[in-house]
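ARCHIVE CARD
Drawer: 12
Card no.: 0347
Subject: one protein chain, sequence and derived structure
Cross-reference: see card 0346
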Amino acid sequence: MNKEEGRKKVKKLAVSFFGKSPVIVAEKLLGKFLVRKHAGKGIAYMITETEAYSGEEDLACHASKGRTIRTETLYGEPAHFYIYLCYGMHYMLNIVTSSKGHPSAVLIRALEGIVGPGRVTKSLEISKNLNGKEASAKSGYWFEDRGVKIDKKSILKTSRIGVEYAGPVWSKKPWRFIVDTT
């Protein structure tokens, strides 16, 4: 991994950071930190893998079937968590992006030392209770920039995982971003 430690102060990511295309946000989240408030302290985990999902037209996005009770959060304000249960056993952690009314999000697939979206939520004790809540100290989970810079040459872009049902166009979109540690 080619990362440079900056001397910047720790900075919480503002709502405006998430108010962009999920593809842009997914790549920019690499090297940022997901922070969990636990026992009165913030525990930070560097984000190392993400996937982008963009709107009703994206057949891999839950919103492709339209607005439902399940997907309502996706249509809301950016910087809110979208949590859903996958295969009846694993919660998936997503952060809503773009603008209100445009259903899009970024799935957090891995953190440094925790690989796999189901393991991320299990390790951080994330459940459906976080769904719809804003990424902030109030919810107990937020995002920070701690000055880590990921060299663009160290970012792998691949197709998303487990979305073959979306057809050849949408399943092949290179919207999965991974920090290459080799």
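Annotation on reverse: Residues 3-179 form a domain with the 3-methyladenine DNA Glycosylase; Chain A fold (CATH 3.10.300.10). The chain is about 15% helix and 35% strand.
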